[in-house]
Amino acid sequence: MATDLKIRNASIFSLLLFLSFLLGSSSAATDHDLRITNAERRIDLSSHIIKVFLTLKVENKGTSPTSEVILAFPPAQIDHLALLKAAVSGGKKKKKTYTSLDVNPKLPDGPNGTKYFSVTLLNPLKANEAVTLEILYILTKSLEPFPSEISQSESQLVYYRDSAIILSPYHIEQQATFIRTASTKVESYTNVEPTNRSGLELKYGPYVDQPPHSFSPIIVHFENNNPFVVIEDLVREVEISHWGSVQVREQYTLSHAGARLKGAFSRVDYQSKPSVSGVASFKQLLARLPPRVNSVYYRDEIGNISTSHLRLDLKKSELEIEPRYPLFGGWRATFVIGYRVPLEDFLYESTDGKQRYLNFTFGCPMAETVVNKLTIKVALPEGSKNPTVVAPFTLEQHLETTYSYLDIMGRTVVVLEKKNVVPEHNSPFQVYYDFNPAFMLVEPLILVSIFVLFFLACIAYLHGDISIQKHKTP
Ligand SMILES: *[C@@H]1O[C@H](CO)[C@@H](O)[C@H](O)[C@H]1NC(C)=O
Ligand SMILES: *[C@@H]1O[C@H](CO)[C@@H](O)[C@H](O)[C@H]1NC(C)=O
Ligand SMILES: *[C@@H]1O[C@H](CO)[C@@H](O)[C@H](O)[C@H]1NC(C)=O
Ligand SMILES: *[C@@H]1O[C@H](CO)[C@@H](O)[C@H](O)[C@H]1NC(C)=O
Fold first, then answer.
1. How far does the signal peptide extend, from start to end residue (predicted)?
2. Which residue owns the Cα nearest ligand 3 atom 3?
């Protein structure tokens, strides 16, 4: 076909056809030219946030170079995938370096609804060359409590479902999977020869020469009493005042996403037998706040909650809080945490000196939690314009306007939203904006004018008073 086109020659149309043919054929060819010579997968099931570390040694067995390596996920995992990162490792054992790579969804889907992601290599992988990729992905809500209801004194058991063989569009020569369970109490697991369990570790493999898209479903049933802390909704309001501080207010709707509590809750049992009663519940939460926080509060709709401890040091502040009652499966609690941090720790001038920016941490300050929906609202000082957001991942964003005391024009609020947020999303983001320093004078001017008006009113009143008295006295 290529020679055919060459004969017809010259016309732009045929050239385009030729190019699209080349592109089409090269991307189709790469899928089969790559091979995974060695794969190792480590699945960490010790908390309710599942971390999977995958090391792939990829070799180009074709003749043309390629920059794309495809990762595959079964459709059941895709909705639970909170994060996917890839890096290429280089250097020798002691001085290993990691360079992160771009990862993007890739269409169309593969057989049986397999979802693809494409990793872009820094340099094209030439024929007969190999590269080692380090992949990290995080799954949430992938542990199903079974039984789904337990009594106060029972432990929580969960199911984890996956494939013993790594799903891949490539042929995998050698592979093994290591699953780390939360406890040594493993009720059952699917056996796919060879399978071996010792202590916390369950090993699947080694398996050799698995063709593309091999899949072998497994179920692991084990005890996991780690707190299944899910924040259904978190709204963090960050208000910048050019008068010295950043005020933060965080509204939490918290739930225990583990096995539901069966029967009534007995506080007597809970307090008298703490080691056996309520093993699957939680009552303490740890929030990591920035250093130098002040004016910290913790309250719910009833009022201040006194059970909290704040530890301050130079690098971080830790706020330990206890909701009013311990949380069992299916239970909820709502509360608010607020604090102030010094402006100079978070507000900077851009390198060109034209803009200011807030450099704040995305994510949830609460340790080991999944946030179903996180909203961050950054209220810029009055008179700020043209906000732009720089973040290490995609966020939904829009603008709103809010009014607080002494605001005339209202403040611009940058609203950022993200679903399925895990602790690995706690990384800095920036909001850049234009600011006219003259606006800093507006509020004091309003205050001054109010004082002047008040003063004048007093004088007028006193004068009035005096003049009335004058009228009366003669
Ligand atoms: C698709 O799924 C079916 C049933 O689970 C299985 O038999 C078949 O081999 C799968 N096809 C591919 C290409 O994986
Ligand atoms: C299973 O693992 C243990 C400990 O690592 C080892 O001693 C044993 O030989 C293994 N069994 C098989 C069948 O591989
Ligand atoms: C709650 O705590 C804050 C700060 O600790 C305090 O200013 C406020 O008066 C308290 N409110 C009540 C109702 O106790
Ligand atoms: C934002 O703050 C972090 C530390 O919290 C720092 O590492 C990073 O360089 C800062 N980014 C910018 C653009 O200032």
1. 1-28
2. 297
* Cα 225 to ligand 2 centroid, rounded to whole Å: 27
Residue 1's identity, in one-letter code, is M
Measured between alpha carbons, how far is 114 from 111 in angstroms, rounded to an integer?
A: 6
Residue 298 structure tokens: 């913790």
Task: Report which bound ligand comes closest to the CA of 361.
Answer: 4
Side by side, the strands of the sheet bearing 81-90 are: 66-73, 115-125, 97-106, 81-90, 130-139, 50-60, 34-45, 171-181, 201-210, 195-198
Q: How far is the CA of 214 from the centre of ligand 1 (A)?
A: 9
pLDDT per position in the chain (474 positions), as tens? Answer: 343 433 344 444 444 444 444 444 444 444 458 999 999 999 999 999 999 999 999 999 988 999 999 999 999 999 999 999 999 987 777 778 889 999 999 999 999 999 999 999 999 999 999 999 999 999 999 999 999 998 888 889 999 999 999 999 999 999 999 999 999 999 999 999 999 999 999 999 899 999 999 999 999 999 999 889 999 999 999 999 877 899 999 999 999 999 888 888 878 777 777 667 778 888 889 999 999 999 999 998 888 887 788 988 888 899 999 888 888 888 999 999 999 999 999 999 988 888 999 999 999 999 899 999 999 999 998 888 899 999 999 999 999 988 876 667 788 999 999 999 999 999 999 999 998 766 666 666 666 777 778 778 877 777 766 554 555 444
Residue by residue, DSSP assigns 195-222 as EEEETTEEEEEEEEEEPTT---EEEEEE
**What residues does ligand 2 touch, defined as CB less than 6 Å away?**
196, 198
In the chain, which segments carry CATH 2.60.40.3680? 31-223
Distance 213 CA to ligand 1 centre (A): 9
**Whether the Cβ atoms of residue 230 and residue 253 lie closer than 8 Å to each other:** no
Nearest residue (CA) to ligand 4, atom 6: 428
Location of each CATH 2.60.40.1730 domain in the chain: 229-440
CATH 2.60.40.3680 fits 31-223, yes or no: yes
The verdict on whether omega for the bond into residue 194 sits within 30 degrees of 0, i.e. cis, is yes
Strand-pair partners of 148: none
* Terminal-residue alpha carbon distance, the chain: 119
